[in-house]
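Example record

The entry below shows one chain as it appears in the dataset: sequence first, then structure tokens.
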Amino acid sequence: MVRSDSDPPLLDHYGTLLSPHSTPCDEPQGRVTMEECQLPLIDLCGLSSDDKMVRRACAAAICKASSEWGFFQVVNHGISPRLVEKMRSEQVKLFQTPFETKAKSGLLNNSYRWGSPRATCTNQFSWSEAFHVLLTKVSDEACYGEFTSLREVMTCFAAAMSELSRLLARILIENLGHGKQALIDNICDETTCFLRLNHYPACPISPEITGLVPHTDSDFLTILCQDQVGGLQLMKDSKWVTVKPNKDALIVNIGDLFQAWSNDVYKSVEHRVVTNATTERYSIAYFLCPYYDSSIESFVKPSIYRRFTFREYRDQVQEDVRKTGYKVGLPRFLLKGSDDNTRLHAPSITASS
């Protein structure tokens, strides 16, 4: 296997996890991959229709998909194909930079990450690299170095993704029937929301290696812009569903905080990225998060989760990962008497928190 000077040393790190002294891991049982599947597809033009019934039907489709799938696709979302194309071009140039430059030059607020530093066995290892950038730093000229053209495009892209995420969040809140649509605007801002630029190099050594290990997202919701290579899978009815790429659509998924807010009306679903033996893959994810001290409490009563802050949630996730290599997530915050056996699936290492 020939490694480009832009690729991180993924194979070297993976090899150390194959040593006789590495920690053994149990593989999740009873999970088989289904055929390629089309996520619910929602045309957001319906939200601006003059017909009240059309607007209601569009909003209802968003809420239904969030409840039944935890994932859906949106078209006519307001982010121009030209902006997406420019963002993708700049992203490719960024990741084609030599590894040493990405790792040591402080690019994008020193947010470069690769592999899984805390992995103790092979099924905790992610064959990928990423820049994990807070929105407060997206427009910071000092973060870009020689990549001056990336700043303008990324600033526009982040603003568009932020606007779309808040629109969808307000619809989901309104559906819960508590008249708190403006709440999302009051507790989310650039200090905690972020963009994650992902690159999954080709991985010819084993189809069992994941590009991103199974996980749920520790936010309110995530919006994903991916290329046409494919590789995203989600857990549906105890089976891995392979998501068919749609060049015109963005993918939206519910995060842990919205599941807690909605008292399990909306589902934060486990998902992963599988590797491709011959072709690299690129994606960009926007994560809608609250202030760290924001209180998360179920709108629907009686609540099955205790009240917690986002900071408390992140700290618990990071402690679990540090001690065990795995993210446990929401089951840690179930109230006594809740049936955690129905919610404790095979644990997953955190990928976005």
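Notes for this example: Residues 29-293 form a domain with the Jelly Rolls fold (CATH 2.60.120.330). The chain has one domain: 29-293.
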